[in-house]
Amino acid sequence: MPYLISMSVFRGRVTRSHPITIALYCLLLFSNRSQAVWKRQTPGPQYDLLIKNGHVIDPKNHINAKKDIAVAGGRIVKVDNDIPALQSRKTIDAKGLYVVPGLIDIHTHVFVGTKAEKFADGIYSVSPDDFTFKSGVTTVVDAGTSGWRNFSLFKEQVIDRSQTRVLAFLNIAGSGMSGKPLQEDINDMNSDSAVVAIHKHKDIIVGIKIGHYEGSDWTPFERALEAGRKSNTPLFVECHLPQFSLEDQVTKMRPGDILTHSFEQVAERMSVVDQQGKVRPFVLAAQKKGVLFDVGHGGAGFWFSQAVPAFKQGLVPNSFGSDLHRFSMNAGMKSMLNIMSKYMAIGMSIEDVIARATWNAAKSIKREDLGNLSEGSVADITILSLQNGKFGFIDAAGKKLEGNSKLEAELTIRAGKIVWDLNGIAAEPWKQ
Ligand SMILES: [Zn+2]
Fold first, then answer.
1. What is the pTM for the complete model shown?
2. How far from 369 is each of 281, 351, 363, CA to CA, in Å?
3. What is the DSSP-derived secondary structure letter of residue 370?
4. How far is the CA of 167 from the centre of ligand 1 (A)?
5. What is the mean pLDDT of residues 16-44?
């Protein structure tokens, strides 16, 4: 302690009361006190979490570079080239990894309950937290599993009890996807009741869904559009409308309305690519008009015979809705990251893949507070690794496409909290 030694030397001289020595001693005493005061007032680290050295892809802010991200109070507070680790209570080294906004899946079925053979309050839906974080997803949109009659049960049973942010397209059918004949009862498709529910829960309900109706009467579609117009929210159109022509559907849809299962090849809906392998002109015209095309992979909604020629001819999906439910997750869909990797195998760049899983998805549901890493935004952050090797991707026809890279979720953060850590990159080493 050289400082203490010098103190005692000065103390020795003080006894001799030399004026210069006294002055020096006072100066030293003052500096000693101010140091102690400074030590008491110095704040601790200002950030809760710091992600260092990662390759950040944040399409909203046009960032595609190495950056550090600091989090405090559940929000992103700083994005910069070099933020010192000393300023954070916890630091994660993301070297060699991609750091992106928490992924948004705009097509899921998560109104899980105990009813047999049903999606609404039933066993065909899945519990969101069980599947989201491990694939980097922090926000899901339930695609019309509930309607205005049973939305409050869905909210109480699932939305309020999940760590995943659960948003919803409200089904125009009052009881949502509760099976026939209830879900096809036109008398229960009430646009005013749907609008009342949307206004009451505008922080959760992001649009209206139409999807299961086997009649030829356009009333359900018109009522769904009317509810969308009155609430200024998008209409989400699922395929199970066998009597409606695809051309009529996309013609009625407004810019910003969303078609899902875009690349399916099933009897109940005309495909977007014709038998000669050409994208139908009215489909390209609809996309030009502003109709959005969601993948909506599901169990039967994604076929390479449609998706590959569509991609090559410029019909590129706007978002990667997974159509998560108990069947699709065990078939070719698997997870949203698997769909993203599949599109990389088809030829999409990682930047374009991330944009569709984050900022594009946020914009399509008019939630521009999400899907980005802006300072001030909620800290929903996903850290991805890009695995290289030989991988196979399966479509609804059971066909395989080979690829040489695959995305995996290393770490998922929801509102500043670590909710998934595959290899313990945020954990302290264990010592015996
Ligand atoms: Zn669906």
1. 0.90
2. 35, 20, 9
3. S
4. 14
5. 53
